[in-house]
Amino acid sequence: MKKLLFQFDTDAYPSVFDTVVAYDGGADCVIGHGGLIPDNVTKLVEGAIFTRAPKDKKSTAIFVGGSDMVAGQALLKAVQKQFFAGFQVSVMFDSNGCNTTAAAAVAKMVAGRNFAGKKAVVLAGTGPVGQRAAVMLAKEGATVAITSRKLEQAILTCEAIKARFGVDLIPIEAADNTARANAIADANIVLAAGSAGVELLQEQHWRDNPSLELIADANTTPPLGIGGTDMMDRGVERHGKLIWGAIGFGAFKLTLHRACIAKLFEDNKRVLDAEDIYAIAKEMAKI
Known about the structure:
Elements: E1 4-9, H1 16-24, E2 29-33, H2 42-49, E3 60-65, H3 69-81, E4 90-93, H4 98-110, E5 119-123, H5 128-139, E6 143-148, H6 151-165, E7 170-173, H7 177-183, E8 189-192, E9 214-217, E10 234-238, E11 241-244, H8 246-264, E12 271-272, H9 274-285
Parallel strand pairs: 1-2, 1-3, 3-4, 4-12, 5-6, 5-8, 6-7, 8-9, 9-11
Antiparallel strand pairs: 10-11
Helix pairs in contact: 1-8, 4-5, 4-8, 4-9, 8-9
């Protein structure tokens, strides 16, 4: 029985990245569909859930992706709405790499550490990776703040996260590097999740900060999100802080993504979203 993965993408063209990783994760065939919205996905889901016998449904799975996390979340709900007893397949949600990237970064930082009572700041935290990383840090017991250039956007993001995950975050307006330096003044953990090529902090803004212990930067496009770091950093100590760069935890992100794809074919009832993907990442980080 061939392992079939149906790639449901909210963008016009399904992600080549996600297609490659799907094959590397063990799918025998990846069938991509682009431009999907809740209103046009029903027939595709029906085709996936009605065609194989109950014992064989684990060989069919769905991956929900695309560059828009909000659109992806709506599509995931529409997919799950079509499932009913005896007729469902496993599904994974990772729009814009939100879950696997965030899980890889946070799992590497938290490995062997207790974050209870720590303060974490996610810079430019209103994007897909920033939002999910903030949730994972909060679930570890940290007090988490997210910054945005506009306070209104930070507040809306915190409210959306509260509704979905039940965690409280602190919204901070930080329109420039100086404001962001002030935002991390008493932080123990900083994760930068800004747009490609946008510097959020210069080295001088964090180098002599005595409270900082861990820093991660998800940006691979120069200039990096946090100056004075290297995208290849893998828990490298710089100025008394342990640094993770985007490539430093990126290899683990790919390994995690592939592992999640493989798990989709273990049974037909998995829903791999932030919680389960992070749990898988934490187990893998121990190895």
